[in-house]
Amino acid sequence: MCKAESLYGQRKDLQLTKTQESALISVDVLMIITEWQEFRVPNFDKIADILKYPVIFDGRNLYNPNTVAAHGIDYFPIGRELPKFHN
């Protein structure tokens, strides 16, 4: 959060949270648009439990599609071919 706050400051149109998990509460799906180290090794089981719909759109292609799918999450890597398990 400190990194984001230093970049964007305190703004009314931006909500910062102290943990990755708290950012997912009451959220429909997860979109990854950063390459920050904090997001490279997520707890996919927690993500699947917290999200309203277990779906990740990954604009940075950080994760292995098969690994994410093994946790029951629909995974859409942006700019990369969809894995065979997507119909």
Per-chain topology:
Blueprint: H1 2-8, H2 20-23, E1 30-32, H3 44-50, E2 55-58, H4 65-69, E3 74-77
Parallel strand pairs: 1-2, 2-3
Would you kindly provide a written description of the structure presented here, covering whatever features stand out?
The protein is α/β, with parallel strands linked by helices. The protein has a domain at 20-77. 26% of the residues lie in helices and 13% in strands. The chain has helices at 2-8, 20-23, 44-50, 65-69; strands spanning 30-32, 55-58, 74-77. A three-stranded parallel β-sheet has the order 1-2-3. The N and C termini lie far apart (37 Å). The model has no long low-confidence stretch (mean pLDDT 89).
Q: Please, what is the average pLDDT?
A: 89
Give the C-alpha Rg: 14 Å
Summarize the helix and strand pattern as letters.
HHEHEHE
Which stretches are low in confidence, meaning pLDDT under 50 for 5 or more residues running? none
Overall geometry = globular
Count all strands and give the number.
Answer: 3
Give the helix proportion (percent range). Answer: 25-40%
Can you give me a brief rundown of this structure?
With 87 residues, the chain is of the alpha/beta class.
Keyphrases for this structure?
three-stranded parallel beta sheet; alpha/beta; 87 residues
